[in-house]
Specification:
Layout lengths: L8 H15 L5 H8 L3 H7 L3 H24 L5 H12 L3 H4 L12 H23 L9 H20 L5 H15 L4
Length: 185
């Protein structure tokens, strides 16, 4: 049995911040310190401001999303199968990151914006493939389809967090909404 590596103070702070911010997006840094069980000096060494902490969480969300999707791309599936597996991989991550909806300032950071825009470009490429397969109508603009899918993922995260939708059901509902709601007429 492999011994698990002890988390660093920074990782503990990020975990604590995510846990707190999921329940209370306006939580203070003092609440994060208390939950993480570290001193204020430790927090400020890694995250001198709330904005720095939120930026790090946003980058972590993007990284974890990329890691969840990477094995899917390697399978060379149809675009429809890729979409289904992508949603099944991404939607469960939302319980930790849905609070970023209320932290739009994180996406103004150049590093976060660049990484997020890269993900949106990847989604745009998938939209092109979905159009070629007849899943998305050719007369739907890519920009609209990307925005709709991105919004549906955020909506799934919110719906799971608030209890409107069961976690196991969310990805399926997003997939159904995309494939039936954007279907050619």
């Amino acid at each position: 049995m492999r011994k698990q590596k002890k988390k660093s103070s920074k990782e503990e702070l990020l975990d604590a911040a995510i846990a707190i911010l999921v329940d209370n997006p306006s939580a203070s840094l003092s609440e994060v310190v208390k939950k993480a069980g570290v001193g204020r000096a430790t927090l400020y060494r890694y995250f001198p401001t709330r904005e720095a902490l939120v930026k790090e969480i946003a980058l972590l969300a993007i990284k974890q999303t990329d890691e969840a999707i990477a094995p899917i791309a390697a399978k060379q599936l149809s675009s429809q199968e890729t979409l289904r597996e992508m949603l099944e991989a991404i939607v469960p991550l939302g319980d930790r990151f849905h609070f970023l909806m209320s932290e739009s300032s994180a996406y103004k950071d150049p590093e976060v914006a660049q990484a997020y825009n890269r993900q949106l470009e990847d989604l745009n490429t998938l939209i092109e493939e979905l159009k070629r397969e007849g899943v998305v109508a050719m007369d739907i603009s890519n920009a609209w389809a990307v925005a709709a899918i991105d919004s549906l993922i955020w909506t799934a995260w919110y719906s799971v967090q608030t209890g409107y939708v069961a976690p196991k059901e969310a990805a399926s509902l997003v997939y159904r909404t995309i494939t039936k709601g954007l279907q050619p007429q």
